[in-house]
Design a protein that fits this description.
Elements lengths: L1 H9 L3 E3 L17 H5 L11 H19 L1 H4 L2 E5 L2 E2 L2 H18 L2 H12 L12 H9 L12 H4 L3 H9 L6 H56 L8 H14 L7 H21 L2
Parallel strand pairs: 1-2
Antiparallel strand pairs: 2-3
Helix pairs in contact: 3-5, 11-12
InterPro entries: DnaJ_domain (IPR001623), DnaJ_domain_CS (IPR018253), J_dom_sf (IPR036869)
Protein name: J domain-containing protein
Protein backbone atom coordinates (compact mmCIF):
# COMPACT_ATOMS: atom_id res chain seq x y z
CA UNK A 1 0.00 0.00 0.00
CA UNK A 2 2.82 2.40 0.93
CA UNK A 3 4.58 1.58 -2.34
CA UNK A 4 1.46 2.45 -4.33
CA UNK A 5 1.08 5.78 -2.55
CA UNK A 6 4.72 6.64 -3.15
CA UNK A 7 4.45 5.71 -6.80
CA UNK A 8 1.30 7.83 -7.21
CA UNK A 9 2.96 10.84 -5.55
CA UNK A 10 6.03 10.71 -7.78
CA UNK A 11 4.28 9.78 -11.03
CA UNK A 12 4.35 12.57 -13.64
CA UNK A 13 1.06 14.20 -14.60
CA UNK A 14 -0.57 13.37 -17.91
CA UNK A 15 0.10 16.02 -20.54
CA UNK A 16 -2.88 17.09 -22.64
CA UNK A 17 -3.83 19.75 -25.15
CA UNK A 18 -7.05 20.84 -26.80
CA UNK A 19 -6.91 18.08 -29.39
CA UNK A 20 -7.18 15.43 -26.64
CA UNK A 21 -10.68 16.72 -25.90
CA UNK A 22 -11.60 17.26 -29.56
CA UNK A 23 -11.48 21.03 -29.01
CA UNK A 24 -10.39 23.96 -31.14
CA UNK A 25 -7.22 25.81 -30.10
CA UNK A 26 -7.51 28.52 -27.46
CA UNK A 27 -7.86 32.01 -29.04
CA UNK A 28 -4.57 33.90 -29.37
CA UNK A 29 -5.98 37.34 -28.53
CA UNK A 30 -5.43 38.71 -25.01
CA UNK A 31 -9.14 39.39 -24.50
CA UNK A 32 -11.03 36.77 -26.53
CA UNK A 33 -14.75 37.21 -27.02
CA UNK A 34 -17.24 34.55 -25.83
CA UNK A 35 -17.72 33.47 -29.45
CA UNK A 36 -13.94 33.04 -29.86
CA UNK A 37 -13.66 30.96 -26.67
CA UNK A 38 -16.45 28.59 -27.77
CA UNK A 39 -15.66 28.80 -31.49
CA UNK A 40 -19.26 29.81 -32.21
CA UNK A 41 -20.44 31.77 -35.23
CA UNK A 42 -21.60 35.23 -33.98
CA UNK A 43 -24.15 35.47 -36.79
CA UNK A 44 -25.61 32.06 -35.83
CA UNK A 45 -26.28 31.44 -39.52
CA UNK A 46 -24.34 28.17 -39.38
CA UNK A 47 -27.03 26.62 -37.13
CA UNK A 48 -30.35 25.52 -38.56
CA UNK A 49 -32.25 25.60 -35.29
CA UNK A 50 -31.93 26.99 -31.80
CA UNK A 51 -31.58 23.44 -30.50
CA UNK A 52 -28.56 22.82 -32.72
CA UNK A 53 -26.93 26.00 -31.41
CA UNK A 54 -27.60 25.06 -27.77
CA UNK A 55 -26.37 21.51 -28.36
CA UNK A 56 -23.04 22.65 -29.76
CA UNK A 57 -22.64 25.24 -27.00
CA UNK A 58 -23.26 22.71 -24.20
CA UNK A 59 -21.02 20.11 -25.83
CA UNK A 60 -18.12 22.55 -26.11
CA UNK A 61 -18.75 23.78 -22.57
CA UNK A 62 -18.53 20.25 -21.13
CA UNK A 63 -15.24 19.60 -22.94
CA UNK A 64 -13.75 22.88 -21.72
CA UNK A 65 -14.86 22.13 -18.16
CA UNK A 66 -13.20 18.70 -18.26
CA UNK A 67 -10.02 20.40 -19.32
CA UNK A 68 -9.97 23.56 -17.18
CA UNK A 69 -12.09 22.97 -14.07
CA UNK A 70 -9.80 23.49 -11.03
CA UNK A 71 -10.81 20.16 -9.46
CA UNK A 72 -10.12 18.25 -12.69
CA UNK A 73 -7.16 20.23 -14.01
CA UNK A 74 -4.92 19.16 -11.09
CA UNK A 75 -4.64 15.68 -12.60
CA UNK A 76 -3.10 16.81 -15.89
CA UNK A 77 -0.79 19.42 -17.40
CA UNK A 78 -2.15 21.52 -20.24
CA UNK A 79 0.50 22.02 -22.90
CA UNK A 80 0.50 24.63 -25.64
CA UNK A 81 3.41 24.15 -28.00
CA UNK A 82 6.40 23.70 -25.69
CA UNK A 83 4.83 25.59 -22.76
CA UNK A 84 2.96 24.10 -19.81
CA UNK A 85 0.24 26.35 -18.42
CA UNK A 86 0.59 27.46 -14.81
CA UNK A 87 -2.23 26.77 -12.36
CA UNK A 88 -3.05 30.50 -12.25
CA UNK A 89 -3.36 30.59 -16.04
CA UNK A 90 -5.68 27.57 -16.05
CA UNK A 91 -7.82 29.21 -13.37
CA UNK A 92 -8.00 32.46 -15.36
CA UNK A 93 -9.14 30.59 -18.45
CA UNK A 94 -11.74 28.70 -16.45
CA UNK A 95 -13.17 32.02 -15.23
CA UNK A 96 -13.27 33.31 -18.81
CA UNK A 97 -15.08 30.15 -19.90
CA UNK A 98 -17.71 30.62 -17.20
CA UNK A 99 -18.32 34.27 -18.12
CA UNK A 100 -18.50 33.44 -21.82
CA UNK A 101 -20.99 30.62 -21.22
CA UNK A 102 -23.22 32.89 -19.13
CA UNK A 103 -23.40 35.27 -22.10
CA UNK A 104 -23.92 32.73 -24.87
CA UNK A 105 -26.52 30.55 -23.17
CA UNK A 106 -28.90 33.50 -22.60
CA UNK A 107 -30.46 34.82 -25.85
CA UNK A 108 -30.93 38.34 -24.41
CA UNK A 109 -27.32 38.56 -23.25
CA UNK A 110 -26.15 37.08 -26.52
CA UNK A 111 -28.00 39.71 -28.55
CA UNK A 112 -26.72 42.52 -26.30
CA UNK A 113 -23.14 41.29 -26.60
CA UNK A 114 -23.46 41.00 -30.36
CA UNK A 115 -24.70 44.59 -30.42
CA UNK A 116 -21.67 45.63 -28.32
CA UNK A 117 -19.27 43.93 -30.74
CA UNK A 118 -20.82 45.24 -33.94
CA UNK A 119 -21.98 48.78 -33.07
CA UNK A 120 -19.99 51.53 -34.80
CA UNK A 121 -20.55 55.14 -35.80
CA UNK A 122 -20.87 53.98 -39.41
CA UNK A 123 -24.37 52.74 -38.54
CA UNK A 124 -25.60 56.28 -37.78
CA UNK A 125 -28.45 57.49 -40.00
CA UNK A 126 -29.49 61.16 -39.67
CA UNK A 127 -33.12 61.55 -38.72
CA UNK A 128 -33.60 57.81 -38.15
CA UNK A 129 -31.20 56.97 -35.34
CA UNK A 130 -32.53 57.73 -31.85
CA UNK A 131 -30.50 59.85 -29.45
CA UNK A 132 -29.73 56.83 -27.26
CA UNK A 133 -28.57 54.76 -30.22
CA UNK A 134 -26.46 57.68 -31.46
CA UNK A 135 -24.87 58.04 -28.02
CA UNK A 136 -24.18 54.33 -27.91
CA UNK A 137 -22.56 54.44 -31.36
CA UNK A 138 -20.37 57.37 -30.34
CA UNK A 139 -19.22 55.73 -27.09
CA UNK A 140 -19.03 52.06 -28.04
CA UNK A 141 -15.22 52.18 -27.96
CA UNK A 142 -14.98 53.56 -24.40
CA UNK A 143 -13.95 51.11 -21.69
CA UNK A 144 -16.54 52.39 -19.21
CA UNK A 145 -19.27 51.30 -21.65
CA UNK A 146 -17.79 47.91 -22.52
CA UNK A 147 -20.09 44.94 -22.01
CA UNK A 148 -17.98 43.70 -19.09
CA UNK A 149 -18.21 47.05 -17.26
CA UNK A 150 -21.76 48.12 -18.14
CA UNK A 151 -23.93 45.38 -19.70
CA UNK A 152 -27.10 47.39 -19.01
CA UNK A 153 -25.90 49.98 -21.51
CA UNK A 154 -26.25 47.35 -24.25
CA UNK A 155 -29.42 45.69 -22.99
CA UNK A 156 -31.41 48.93 -22.92
CA UNK A 157 -33.37 50.16 -25.93
CA UNK A 158 -33.97 53.76 -24.78
CA UNK A 159 -32.69 56.24 -22.22
CA UNK A 160 -35.67 55.37 -20.02
CA UNK A 161 -34.80 51.66 -20.12
CA UNK A 162 -31.18 52.40 -19.29
CA UNK A 163 -32.18 54.59 -16.33
CA UNK A 164 -34.60 51.94 -15.06
CA UNK A 165 -31.98 49.16 -15.34
CA UNK A 166 -29.18 51.17 -13.79
CA UNK A 167 -31.02 52.80 -10.89
CA UNK A 168 -33.91 50.39 -10.38
CA UNK A 169 -36.58 53.07 -10.72
CA UNK A 170 -38.39 55.00 -13.42
CA UNK A 171 -36.76 58.21 -14.67
CA UNK A 172 -38.13 61.41 -13.08
CA UNK A 173 -40.97 63.27 -14.79
CA UNK A 174 -40.81 66.91 -15.87
CA UNK A 175 -42.68 67.94 -12.69
CA UNK A 176 -40.23 66.02 -10.51
CA UNK A 177 -37.28 67.55 -12.32
CA UNK A 178 -38.72 71.04 -11.78
CA UNK A 179 -39.26 70.29 -8.10
CA UNK A 180 -35.83 68.78 -7.66
CA UNK A 181 -34.23 71.68 -9.51
CA UNK A 182 -34.85 74.02 -6.58
CA UNK A 183 -33.70 71.44 -4.05
CA UNK A 184 -30.50 71.00 -5.98
CA UNK A 185 -30.08 74.79 -6.22
CA UNK A 186 -30.51 75.18 -2.45
CA UNK A 187 -27.97 72.44 -1.78
CA UNK A 188 -25.52 74.01 -4.21
CA UNK A 189 -25.94 77.39 -2.51
CA UNK A 190 -25.40 75.83 0.92
CA UNK A 191 -22.26 74.06 -0.23
CA UNK A 192 -21.02 77.24 -1.92
CA UNK A 193 -21.70 79.27 1.25
CA UNK A 194 -19.80 76.80 3.40
CA UNK A 195 -16.92 76.84 0.94
CA UNK A 196 -16.83 80.66 0.95
CA UNK A 197 -16.91 80.80 4.77
CA UNK A 198 -14.07 78.30 4.98
CA UNK A 199 -12.05 80.30 2.45
CA UNK A 200 -12.63 83.52 4.42
CA UNK A 201 -11.64 81.84 7.69
CA UNK A 202 -8.52 80.47 6.05
CA UNK A 203 -7.67 83.91 4.65
CA UNK A 204 -8.12 85.51 8.10
CA UNK A 205 -5.95 82.84 9.69
CA UNK A 206 -3.23 83.39 7.11
CA UNK A 207 -3.45 87.17 7.61
CA UNK A 208 -3.08 86.78 11.39
CA UNK A 209 -0.10 84.51 10.90
CA UNK A 210 1.48 87.02 8.51
CA UNK A 211 0.94 89.85 11.01
CA UNK A 212 2.42 87.74 13.82
CA UNK A 213 5.50 86.96 11.76
CA UNK A 214 5.82 90.65 10.86
CA UNK A 215 5.69 91.66 14.55
CA UNK A 216 8.33 89.08 15.41
CA UNK A 217 10.57 90.41 12.65
CA UNK A 218 10.09 93.98 13.93
CA UNK A 219 10.93 92.92 17.49
CA UNK A 220 14.08 91.19 16.32
CA UNK A 221 15.04 94.26 14.27
CA UNK A 222 14.51 96.54 17.32
CA UNK A 223 16.62 94.25 19.50
CA UNK A 224 19.40 94.22 16.91
CA UNK A 225 19.23 98.01 16.65
CA UNK A 226 19.51 98.43 20.44
CA UNK A 227 22.45 96.05 20.51
CA UNK A 228 24.18 98.02 17.79
CA UNK A 229 23.64 101.27 19.72
CA UNK A 230 25.08 99.65 22.85
CA UNK A 231 27.97 98.09 20.87
CA UNK A 232 26.59 94.66 21.87
CA UNK A 233 27.02 95.37 25.63
CA UNK A 234 30.70 96.15 25.28
CA UNK A 235 30.44 99.93 25.45
CA UNK A 236 32.26 102.57 23.42
CA UNK A 237 33.98 104.74 26.07
CA UNK A 238 37.77 105.18 26.03
CA UNK A 239 38.17 103.16 29.21
CA UNK A 240 36.08 100.26 27.81
CA UNK A 241 37.97 100.29 24.51
CA UNK A 242 41.26 100.21 26.40
CA UNK A 243 40.07 97.31 28.55
CA UNK A 244 39.02 95.35 25.40
CA UNK A 245 42.37 96.10 23.77
CA UNK A 246 44.30 94.79 26.76
CA UNK A 247 42.06 91.70 26.96
CA UNK A 248 42.44 90.88 23.25
CA UNK A 249 46.21 91.48 23.46
CA UNK A 250 46.56 89.11 26.43
CA UNK A 251 44.50 86.41 24.67
CA UNK A 252 47.23 86.21 22.01
CA UNK A 253 50.09 85.78 24.51
CA UNK A 254 51.52 82.47 25.66
CA UNK A 255 51.30 83.56 29.29
CA UNK A 256 47.78 84.98 29.07
CA UNK A 257 46.82 83.40 32.41
CA UNK A 258 49.87 84.68 34.29
CA UNK A 259 49.01 86.72 37.37
CA UNK A 260 51.79 89.19 36.57
CA UNK A 261 50.24 89.99 33.19
CA UNK A 262 46.78 90.45 34.74
CA UNK A 263 48.24 92.71 37.46
CA UNK A 264 49.99 94.80 34.81
CA UNK A 265 46.69 95.31 32.97
CA UNK A 266 44.91 96.28 36.18
CA UNK A 267 47.64 98.81 36.97
CA UNK A 268 47.33 100.37 33.52
CA UNK A 269 43.54 100.63 33.84
CA UNK A 270 43.81 102.01 37.38
CA UNK A 271 46.28 104.75 36.33
CA UNK A 272 44.05 105.65 33.38
CA UNK A 273 41.00 105.88 35.62
CA UNK A 274 42.92 107.97 38.14
CA UNK A 275 44.00 110.35 35.37
CA UNK A 276 40.39 110.77 34.30
CA UNK A 277 39.34 111.56 37.87
CA UNK A 278 42.18 114.07 38.31
CA UNK A 279 40.92 116.02 35.31
CA UNK A 280 37.78 116.98 37.21
CA UNK A 281 39.58 118.22 40.34
Amino acid sequence: MLLCIRRYATEAKRQVNHSHFDLHAWPKSKRPSPHDIFDMDPSESAYKTRREYDSKLKSTYKKLIKMYHPDLAVSHDIVEGSTTLLASKKRARFDEIQKAYEVLKDPRKRIAYKKYEQTTWDDYKPGKTSSFEAYRMANAHRRQYSYENDPKFWHAATWEDYYQMKWGRSPPTAEELEKNKWKILYKVLIVASVAVVLQVMLAIERTDEFNRQTRLMNLRADADLRDSYNNFDEGRSQFQRMRRFLLYRRSGLDGRDDEATKKEENDILTRFAQQQVDKFK
